[in-house]
Amino acid sequence: MRILLFFYLLLIGLFVGYVYNYQTTDSIEREWSENELTGNMDETYVMVTFQVGIDYWKRSLKGFEDAAEAMNVSVEYRGATQYDVDEEITVLEQVIAKNPAGIAVSTMDPRALNPVIENAVDAGIPVVMFDSDAPESEAYSFLGTDNYNAGVEAANKMAELLNEEGEVGVITQPHQLNHQERTQGFQDTIFVEYPNMKVVSIKDGRGEQMLSKAAAEDIMREYPDIAGIFATEANGGVGVGLATVANNRQDLIKIISFDTGKGTLDMIEDGVISATLAQGTWEMGYWSLQFLFHLQHDIVEQENDSMPLPRFVDTGVTIVTKENVDSYYPQ
Amino acid sequence: MRILLFFYLLLIGLFVGYVYNYQTTDSIEREWSENELTGNMDETYVMVTFQVGIDYWKRSLKGFEDAAEAMNVSVEYRGATQYDVDEEITVLEQVIAKNPAGIAVSTMDPRALNPVIENAVDAGIPVVMFDSDAPESEAYSFLGTDNYNAGVEAANKMAELLNEEGEVGVITQPHQLNHQERTQGFQDTIFVEYPNMKVVSIKDGRGEQMLSKAAAEDIMREYPDIAGIFATEANGGVGVGLATVANNRQDLIKIISFDTGKGTLDMIEDGVISATLAQGTWEMGYWSLQFLFHLQHDIVEQENDSMPLPRFVDTGVTIVTKENVDSYYPQ
């Protein structure tokens, strides 16, 4: 009987303890359940690119995944295996057919995907563009590098490397808008900010190493005092590096390149390329997912019918030099 | 004895029930505690402006508050009561002294706050700029309107209103950068896109109704065929509206203005002003808090030392006309 009473009291004690505990937990839970930034794992957001296998997309995808983890939703990665716009359209159509919670698209063609993007938006699927835009599409936002500003940053870094003095050249792809903008930002900044510097030559490297090497050698021949070359894309930068090394001018000509491919990073390590501009690819992926989540959950201004998201996010560039190059190699 | 046994069994039953319940709750709680986008109410984020009382800030503050609610953190609103940069500096210093979780600042002077912003960042307090930037400050990001693009949108809307034909003018504040950019975007777009339109006059309205009215009347006198006027700020728009009404030209001259003050909205309702550009002020506040939260919680790219946030967010503009003007009156 006394043992029974003891158990009886013990149970009452435990019971009271649990009730107290439960209610505390409950109040925390209530607070959390008001949090709008938690989805569920059935919600799938898809990233669609082209040349899906290249390293360039890895950081964007990591940002996309990190945001998904933070918000408790799922992601998928799809895209054209080749640099083939028809293949990308097909993949995008397949993705839309599965009615995902949202799609982040990078396009190799600023117009070709517009009808498919419109289909997605008409079907109520949120779409944002990242890295390269389709400006006339129905996508809600674009998250990528402001290429003009990137050119400005390149010019400022070049001026620093050359003590604001000397002749400089550019190797670019003059028919592609993003490269035109990078070149323009570079040119304008040198012209306006650095009176003792001059852009003496702008040449087409066609995005190929060997053609860029040849173009750089042309510049070196035509302008023997050339002190710096800005390459607006990665193959060009490596090509210019090959040119300075082949002509034993690597200590005389400062090179600034673009992006953080292995060839570029190695040349920075070796001191052949002085600096490269790393794009905010992780940021593109992270904020793309955030934006898609906000559209899917309708967490947007409620009072009027203004557009629901910022129309453009400049994810910016970071300057990579020998000092910080290590952290840019894939981990 | 049987009663005691009954209670005993009842208690065991309740106990098991509660244990079960508690564990379920616990597992939900665990899932949520992995969610990085939940703060706690002790975390206070502060919005700092000038002329704190004006309506213009209300939507930004609402966005700031909405984001705080979504992420379970607290907000405060502070600022200079007047258009007085010294007062704003003092307020910002007071805010910093309380070591908040983050500060979103709009400045009336692109340079004056820089030392104070640096103090905040040095003290480990995240700072972002919104609405008007301090581009050379240590703030991590700027969220606001791309004013050049806003001018482009105004030009496209003007072209639509005028069937892409006729003489147009601009009333602006030529000494202020944001107004220069709005004017430039308008001018460039008319010039490049609409060969049958021409910007014939750009005048200084000094941000005042009566001076803008006089400037608009000068344009109407000098260019009797003037078909449209773009005012790059709200008082100018109302001033131009007063000018067309006073001269009985309100049916002949299309006016596009800026922002959504009551005077502007009333003139849209009356058909005197054809359209105005609403800035994404809610978006500025909402994403400012998001950015500050991400800095405070270190939810940024971990692999390298790139900048942690996008450097610029263009919150965009929405065109307000008679059709959607109702939703822009304060609720």
TrEMBL record, chains A, B:
SUPFAM superfamilies referenced in this protein's UniProt entry, alphabetically: Periplasmic binding protein-like I
Keyword DNA-binding belongs to the record: no
InterPro entries: Peripla_BP_I, SBP_2_dom
Record-given protein name: LacI family transcriptional regulator
Family recorded in the similarity comment: Belongs to the bacterial solute-binding protein 2 family.
Database matches in Pfam families: Peripla_BP_4
Residue ranges occupied by any Periplasmic binding protein domain in the UniProt entry: 47-294
Gene Ontology terms, MF aspect: carbohydrate binding
Annotated localization: Cell envelope
A GO cellular-component term linked to this record: cell envelope
Keywords for this protein: Signal
Predominant location category: other
